[in-house]
Amino acid sequence: MDSIQNDIDDKPARPARLEGLTIRAATPADAEEITALANLPGYRYGTLRLPFQRVAETRKWLDEASAGSISLVATYQNQIIGNGGINRFLERRNHAAAIGMGVHDDYRGRGVGSALLKELVGVAYNWLNIRRIELTVYTDNDAAVALYRKFGFEIEGRLRDFAFRNGSYVDAFTMARLKR
């Protein structure tokens, strides 16, 4: 029994939630900081982004956002430490949208993902009248899967060899949440 208690005592304390975290709309002026975020190895590892993303690519993505899409950033001490977005589907799928998000490598586990996801779900349900929110997440991203489950997303399937990442193919879960 003592060895179990010692193992518990030896675990590092969970980082504190960030006081003063804000969520706001992304703007074209954020392109440089969002690009720097996307080029972090841990951030990129959980996305479909290629290494060495250019600022021009990010600026184009921000400038040419489609109708029904919303891009958000999480800021802390005047630095962008996370971003996320929601993209509504068209025509017979206009009741559904896809979300994607990521958090700065140094700020994981501190409530940034929860804050972004809370805002994205709120916008989808309360402003866009979305009924179904979808996402894909790599099967080895345990923290992200746990976050999505905490917000009511359910695994609907496994996409085998979904993407090529760091020299090998990786699977992804497709997850969704329905407004009831």
TrEMBL record:
Keyword Acyltransferase found: yes
PROSITE patterns per the UniProt record, alphabetical: GNAT
Leading EC class: transferase
Family matches, as Pfam families: Acetyltransf_1 (PF00583)
Domain N-acetyltransferase: 21-180
Keyword annotations of the record: Acyltransferase, Transferase
Protein name: Acetyltransferase
